[in-house]
Structures are given as C-alpha cells and as structure tokens.
Amino acid sequence: MTNTRRDDRWPTRPPTRPPTPRPTRRQILRAALGAGALPALAPWATLSVAQPAAARADAPRFVFVILRGGMDGLTAVPAPGDPAFAEARGLLGQFATPVLPLEGPFALHPLLPQLHAMYGRGELAVLHATGLPYRERSHFDAQQVLESGGTKPYELSTGWLARALTAAGAGGAAPMKAVALETAIPLVLRGPAEVDTWAPSAMPEPAADLVARLEVMYRGDAALAQALARARGLREVPGMAANPSGMGGPGAMRSSLGGGARAAVTLATKAAEFLQRGSQVAVLEMGGWDSHTNQAAPQGAISNNLRALDAAMSALREGLQPAQLWSRTVVLVATEFGREVAINGNLGTDHGSGGAAFVLGGAVKGGRVLADWPGLAKKDRFDGRDLRITTDLRAAMRAALGEHLRVPRAALDELVLPGSAALPRVDLLRS
C-alpha cells in the first residue's frame, strides 16, 4: 500500500475566488446593531432591523416552552392508578409527599402545586403518552424534530413556528410579532419570520451620553434609527429601569427559590411583559431534564427543575392577568422525548420515547388528562422499554396554531407541519 501524503490529496493551491468586497461603515453598523453585537447595547436585546407591527390587545397569544434534555413524563405526571405502575417504576414510583390527584389513574408530582391549581381552575390540560415520530433516542436529533416540525431529523431546516408566523401573514395580513427569551433565536423560530430576542445581562447599563450620540449618528439612516428606537423600547419594558437584570419586579416569585427557578421566573415574567407590549408569540426554554442518575433526589436536578417549571408558569400567568391576556393565551410545554419506564442502575432513567406535555392558559379547555393510555406492563411498552406513544405531539401543535392563532388549514398541512394532515384532532381549546 502506498502512503498518501496530505499534499497529494489536496491541490497545492486553492482555487481562485473573486475578491470579497470590503463592507461599508454603514453595513458594519447595521449588522452590529441588527445582531446585538455592540457591547454597549448588549444588555438591551438582540434585534432584527425590520419587525412586524404590534399585535392588537385582543389578539390571541401563544407561548412555546421547550424542556431540553428529555423530561420523564412518569415523574412529572405519574400514573399511580395503573396496576403496573408501582412494580414498573420501583423507587421512582415512591414520593416523599402525596402526589396531586388528576382524573383517572393520573396525578401530578407534588412539586407542581401551581400547575395543579391551574388544573383545578380548568386552565391546564395534560397530554400523556405523547411524543414525536422520531424514536431513536438522540437528544440532538429529537430536538431538531421537535423544533423543525418534521417527521425525521434534518428533513426540514426551518422551524414550525417560524413557518406558522409567515403563513398567518399570507393573504395581506400582517405577520405576527415574536420574541425568543434567549440569547440566540432557537430553531423553532428560524425562518422567514422576523424575531426579537431578549436575555438577562450582567453588563452595565449604556451611558445616556453614548445613547444620545448613537441617536445623532443614526438620525440619517432610517433603518438604523428604527432599530435603535426598538432597542430602547424593548429595554424600557415596565420595571426594567429600576431593575436592569430583570430579576424581581412585578410577577417575580419569592427570593427563597433556587437560582434555576429564579432564572426561569425571570424569563417567564419578561415573556409576559413582551406579550403585553404587542408580541403575539414567545418562546422560552429550560434545560437540564436529562436524568440518568439519582432522579428522585429531593434537591436533585429534576426536583429543582420541577420547582422552576411550576414557578415560571405561575409567573407567566400572573404577568398576563392584569392585562386580561391570560384568557387569550395558550402555552404548550413540551420536551424532545420521554424516558424508559424502569429505573436504571444509577437510580435514574435512560432515553425513551413516550412522555407527557402540558397545555395551559385561559383559552385552554383544561381540567383534563388527554391520553389514550397504553398501560405500563412490559408487554405494553414500546421496545419493551418505553411508554408507548399514542398521541402525536404535532396534533397539539396543530390545534394551537390552527384553532388559536388561525393559521390556515392548508398551510398547516403543506408548509407548517407537513405530514400531519391525517393526525386525529386534539380538543384543546375552549369553545
């Protein structure tokens, strides 16, 4: 065999390319402001240059909450009434305090009292034995499917929510305004739609003199002037001037919450403020739901995440109530996959498929668990390991988009969630 040197495999000289034109000062400034790259403006927000008009106060609102890592649906929503539950779950089927009862064999984890109160008020519906068409147990691939809305990884390169925003603006209607409560736009909102982002920052406030100089500098450029004005508008959300980090303020929870819960409450509170100020759609995420070890630890990652989720959803509701927006809001809380039913050797659970999702809001017909329950006996599990999926999560997406945000049916079938047209309807909304 002949050894082949790297020089033999690649040309000694790269192919010539036309010279790259040097950007103008105006292009650099536009890109910097549009990407949120100016250090002095970093505490404000990451902005696009153009943006749809603000939604009417009576327009429906939609929030998508991504739980990254694969939440164990049988921990968040156990099924103690299933005859096989106790044996199937072992130590994970035992709770330090009583679970919170739902209808049928189901309950909520005791660390979700605010969600349970919403259930009692008819504002929370639980989807169980739900999931995506993807079954291969990779976080990266499953999250790509969750956010793209496809049936397999990398089938689609844009997000289902971004495509829905565009479809809702077809036929002359104004596209919906959206905000991601993250430092970068998540895949679910990537596409032709214009999206703002916001995230807390520890950087100091820009000096008033600097902002005044920027206003003078951008006065002759309509796009830059508009972007700066929008940055100031986003920055001057009520309560921000006195509390630049976004922590605390209206709707914030007690300081006794752990750091993760306080951060989640901050994002939920800010989401409510943006929805009050004219955004129609918001996306936020919570990570850390992977639970291979010590899943039931009272102060472990999953217990803390459940506390954070409960506090954040309560803060979102509290933030939308004064403006009477909660009654026009639907919140979908979903994860990329569930976990195996049985406990593993490290007192945790491994990657699975079927799990649970939450749909909450004043526009939701709640107080129900929506589940075609397959059972937890080993013979009833997918691959003998997982809770079997009997409800496609995309059916819930279709209901939220089509019946709540009024995305046309044809667009849902062909553009937004291709391959989902034949899915059975999920009855989520109040009539």
Helix run count: 13
Strand content: 5-15%
CATH class: Alpha Beta
* Oligomer designation: single chain
Describe this structure in words.
This protein is of the alpha/beta class and 431 residues long. It has a single domain, classed as 3-Layer(aba) Sandwich (Alkaline Phosphatase, subunit A), CATH 3.40.720. The protein has 13 helices and eleven strands. It has helices at residues 6-9, 25-34, 73-76, 85-89, 113-120, 139-148, 160-168, 208-218, 222-235, 259-276, 301-320, 393-404, 409-416, and strands at residues 61-67, 100-101, 107-108, 124-131, 178-180, 195-197, 281-286, 329-335, 355-360, 368-370, 391-392. Strands 1, 4, 5, 6, 7, 8, 9, 10 and 11 form a nine-stranded mixed sheet that branches. A two-stranded antiparallel sheet has the order 2-3. Helix 7 packs antiparallel against helix 13 and helix 10 (259-276) packs parallel to helix 11 (301-320). It is globular. It starts with 5 loop residues before the first helix and ends in a 15-residue tail after the last helix. Mean pLDDT is 84; it is low at 1-21, 25-50 and 237-255.
Secondary structure: elements and pairs:
Elements: H1 6-9, H2 25-34, E1 61-67, H3 73-76, H4 85-89, E2 100-101, E3 107-108, H5 113-120, E4 124-131, H6 139-148, H7 160-168, E5 178-180, E6 195-197, H8 208-218, H9 222-235, H10 259-276, E7 281-286, H11 301-320, E8 329-335, E9 355-360, E10 368-370, E11 391-392, H12 393-404, H13 409-416
Parallel strand pairs: 1-7, 1-8, 4-10, 4-11, 5-6, 5-7
Antiparallel strand pairs: 2-3, 4-9, 8-9
Helix pairs in contact: 2-9, 7-13, 10-11
